[in-house]
Write a structure and sequence with these properties.
- Helix content is 18%, strand content 22%.
- It is an alpha/beta fold.
- The protein has 2 helices and 7 strands.
- The strands form 2 sheets. It has a 5-stranded parallel sheet, with helices on one face. Strands 5-6 form a two-stranded antiparallel ribbon.
- It starts with a strand and ends with a strand.
- Helix 1 links the parallel strand 1 and strand 2.
- The protein is globular, with a radius of gyration of 15 Å.
Amino acid sequence: MKVLISVDLEGISGVVHPAETNPDRYDYERGRALMTAEANAVIAGVLDAEPDAVVWVADAHGTFRNILPEGLDRRAHLVRGKPRPLGMLAGLDEHTDAVLLVGYHARAGAGPAVLAHSRLPGRRLRRGVPAGAAARPTRQHQTELARATR
């Protein structure tokens, strides 16, 4: 079984301020450490449930270089950096059995949420995203989309 864990930063437990998500800000290293720890918790959960699973982790925030590679569970494969096909879902292919979205934030205008926002290539949106935009790549590869929440 192949599992892809796509990890964004704004929805990670304990991340509450933009300074924790921006490489130029004072609290960014704290955000990276929290992101790496949460990715490790999900990796451990997947491997507890499916010991023979092949686990891929896609760093899905900004430059895609946020997860601390040296701190990531060595049982997982890390996809990081740009450019890469499928962006936040890099690593998704026809062999992927499940996709877990971890640390994803609420869309802009979704109500009370920490660091809620939405983007389209080249621009930020004040409200929402095109219907089904997040699910399109997983439908194309006929993969189950799950969402890990706190």
